[in-house]
Amino acid sequence: MSTIKLYLQWSERPNNNIQREAIIHKALDILEEAIASVKEVSNKLSPHLLTYYGLSSAIKSFVDKLNETSTVDIHFESNFDDRLKMEIEAALYRAVIECINNSLKHARAKNIHIRIFNSETQLVLQYSDDGIGFA
């Protein structure tokens, strides 16, 4: 957003050697990227699927999208269809997304495994990858 502001301010300067249309076009390109980023971030923080269908569905949807475009193979299984308080579901969802992002960015993992299941007395979330680990 700061870059867009700078481009627009630049377009208003007198004796500008670059055509105003070119500057505005660059600002529009950056604005489109910013809009896409905001949508992506907001969807990761609290996707509509999480609100309407729950934790397992939201994670499955995120994993399915990644599996279509990523070189990492993400395996997800769950027998958990119950609903928790929204704050708890959101925290668990964000934790899983952060684990996935860390595996993709830092671990150079090729496979990720995520399981969510009910045991007799607790909800269990397991996450593992075949990445390089900590150095």
Q: Tell me the CATH superfamily of the largest domain.
A: Histidine kinase-like ATPase, C-terminal domain
What is the succession of H and E elements?
HHHHEHEE
Weakly predicted, low-confidence segments = none
What gap, in angstroms, lies between the N and C termini?
36 Å
Question: What does the main sheet amount to?
Answer: 3 strands, mixed
On the 0 to 100 scale, the average pLDDT is: 86
Task: Give me the number of helical elements.
Answer: 5
Count of individual beta strands: 3
Q: Which architecture of the largest domain per CATH? A: 2-Layer Sandwich
Describe the structure.
The protein has 135 residues and is an alpha+beta fold. The chain is 59% helix and 16% strand. It contains 5 helices and 3 strands; from the N terminus they run ααααβαββ. It has a 3-stranded mixed sheet, covered by helices on one side. Helix 5 links the parallel strand 1 and strand 2. The chain is elongated, with a radius of gyration of 21 Å.
Report a brief summary of the structure.
This protein has 135 residues and is α+β, with helices and mostly antiparallel strands. The chain is 59% helix and 16% strand.
Topology diagram in text:
Elements: H1 2-11, H2 20-45, H3 48-53, H4 55-69, E1 73-78, H5 86-107, E2 111-118, E3 123-129
Parallel strand pairs: 1-2
Antiparallel strand pairs: 2-3
Helix pairs in contact: 1-2, 4-5
